[in-house]
Specification:
Structural class: alpha/beta
Strand content: 15-25%
Largest sheet: 8 strands, antiparallel
Distance between the termini: 33 Å
Helix content: 25-40%
Number of strands: 23
Radius of gyration: 24 Å
Length: 574
């Protein structure tokens, strides 16, 4: 019998399963593909933790896989002798998030590890802040960020507030592989853990400390006050954790006219008003734009369910609303922060900015023009956190800003993950600054292009779902790696970065990347354009990043179309 059938039968006969869970398994007994999909292997545990659809099975998010992963983390903590230091746990608004958070708490407590459990849903960045504030050894946040409603996830953090370093993630993964999911996982009832003092409920006191730290990151606190009577902002949390703290911080910095999307202020893990609770997508802003047009606002802000990503739509010269991409917002914020510090004569010593290698070089141009050092790191905010940590160890350098193209930003070192709360505050401050000049953010972006040159960034996602999805993804990446393209759209490739092998090849010479190993392929063309291929760590897809420079949007789109033809041919051949 195939291994997946053995796993299926073991689960079906396990005492730990409820009658409802067993009924769900019985319902798929005649669907071999579905059984194989759920039981051929478990969810992969990495530096980003776990993520998957919610159903019964090894390769899914449920109370058993959450408990299994937590036992692996508990074994690491006990081995490190850090049980007394404790673990902070939070969750977002998704279906089952609270149950998964309580399950994790019960496993840690059964292992003698102190737990600090939030009393209700909280933003991911507050979890990062809380574990640092409480001097915890680790943290857990139950969230699948901006994924569709069927998903949930498990983010694990270490004592610096960043997601697990690779060596610890490998240890947890090895423990999960070694442990029997039912026999080797320790649990105790949550109420017993509370009574024994092993679980402490935390809440408003952490909120206050967190918001105080966020507010200190204002660059020019007077900017909003100067236009407070006229400034109007529309905000939606997309049914998520930003619903309370973002309005709170905007009120504290002086915003008088905040209009919220009432339907989306409702906490609901089924996300009834959107297909995907993702602030990258214009569709998520539809209700907010309606309000903006009614009240005369030029800006709509949206945050994802765990409030670590933030997206914006701004009014354009013709009166319509357009998305500001993650790359564009990062560049705008870098430029604004530097400008505001210079205008107020408060630029900190030895300033630096950090971005990922798949993020636009526009911000790098801005930094170079202003004497600010730019660091490029691999995708994942933990790598931005590593740069911050290294500077803190050296005692020299001031962190101005960190960001990724995927709508994640951070100012300040109170947390080590992207933070939509502080970003929403800064976006409103920046909007107020430009409003005082008679400009929208759309105008400000045009001014950046006029000064530094037009840039177009575009992500193309190739989904490879199904049981053979991972094999097809691997085959495509292997084909690109072993037979690297020499041109895109007739433009020669002059540099190839293979971050999996740790090499950069340019002009016939090979040098190290200087970064950790990661399954990323990077191509720089003779005209300066960049194309990057990277498999998603959380979804069955390969993401292709195009970072192009051109005289204008039309020329950039033409270049993109030509490059895409080459990439499509390469994909077909692999």
């Amino acid at each position: 019998m195939n291994t997946f059938w053995n796993n299926y039968n073991n689960w079906l006969n396990a005492d730990a399963l409820s009658d409802a869970e067993k009924a769900e398994l019985i319902s798929i007994k005649d669907d071999a593909d579905e059984v194989a999909l759920r039981f051929s292997s478990g969810l992969s545990f990495g530096t980003a933790g776990l993520r998957g659809t919610m159903k019964v099975g090894l390769n899914a998010m449920n109370v058993h896989t959450v408990a299994h992963a937590t036992q692996g983390l508990a074994n690491l903590i006990v081995r490190e002798g850090r049980a007394a230091d404790g673990v902070a746990i939070a969750c977002d608004s998704r279906l089952n998030s609270q149950i998964f958070a309580e399950t994790a708490a019960s496993v840690l407590a059964a292992n003698g590890i102190q737990v600090y459990l939030f009393d209700a849903l909280r933003p991911t960045p507050e979890l990062s802040f809380a574990l640092r504030e409480l001097s915890c050894v680790a943290g857990i946040n139950i969230t699948a960020s901006h994924n569709p409603k069927e998903y949930n996830g498990y983010k694990a953090y270490w004592e610096d507030g960043a997601q697990l370093p690779p060596e610890h993630a490998d240890t947890v993964a090895a423990e999960i592989a070694r442990l029997d999911i039912f026999k080797d996982v320790k649990k105790m009832p949550l109420q017993d853990a509370l009574d024994a003092g092993l679980v402490t409920i935390i809440g408003e006191e952490i909120d206050e400390k967190y918001l105080a730290q966020v507010q200190t990151q204002a660059v020019n606190p007077d900017a909003i006050a100067a236009v407070a009577d006229e400034l109007k902002i529309v905000y939606t949390p997309l049914h998520g954790t930003g619903h309370r703290l973002i309005p709170a911080i905007l009120s504290r910095v002086g915003l008088k006219h905040l209009y919220t999307v009432d339907e989306q202020m409702v906490i609901d893990g089924s996300f009834p008003t959107v297909k995907k609770p993702n602030p990258e997508y214009p569709e998520a802003f539809a209700l907010g734009v309606e309000i903006a047009n009614k009240v005369g606002s030029d800006l709509v802000i949206a945050t994802d369910p765990d409030a670590d990503r933030v997206g914006v739509m701004t009014r354009t010269p013709d009166g319509s609303f357009a998305t500001i991409t993650g790359n564009q917002m990062g560049a705008l914020l870098v430029d604004y922060i530097i400008t505001a510090y210079k205008e107020t004569n408060t630029m900190p010593h030895n300033p630096y900015v950090v971005k990922s290698i798949v993020t636009s070089e526009l911000a790098a141009k801005i930094c170079a023009a202003n004497g600010v050092k730019m660091h490029n790191v691999l995708t994942g905010f933990k790598f931005i956190g590593e740069v911050i940590k290294n500077y803190e160890k050296s005692g020299d350098g001031s962190f101005l800003f960190g960001f990724e193209e995927s709508y994640g930003y951070l100012k300040g070192t109170y947390a080590r993950d992207k933070d939509a709360v502080v970003t929403a505050m800064l976006i409103c401050e920046m909007t107020a600054y430009y409003q005082a000049k008679g400009m929208t953010l759309s105008d400000a972006l045009s001014a950046l292009f006029d000064k530094y040159g037009f840039c177009l960034e575009r992500n193309v996602e190739v989904y490879m779902e199904g049981l053979d999805g991972p094999a097809r993804m691997a085959a495509l990446m292997d084909g690109l790696r072993n037979n690297p393209p020499t041109e895109f759209g007739g433009v020669a490739v002059t540099l190839v970065g293979d971050y999996g092998r740790g090499t950069i090849t340019e002009g016939g010479e090979v040098r190290p990347t200087g970064l950790p190993s990661s399954n990323v392929l990077y191509y720089r063309l003779a005209n300066g354009d960049v194309i990057v291929a990277r498999p998603s760590g959380t979804e069955p897809k390969i993401k292709f990043y195009y970072m192009l420079e051109a005289a204008n949007a039309a020329v950039a789109e033409e270049k993109l179309a030509n490059y895409q033809k080459t990439l499509n041919a390469l994909s077909d051949n692999n």
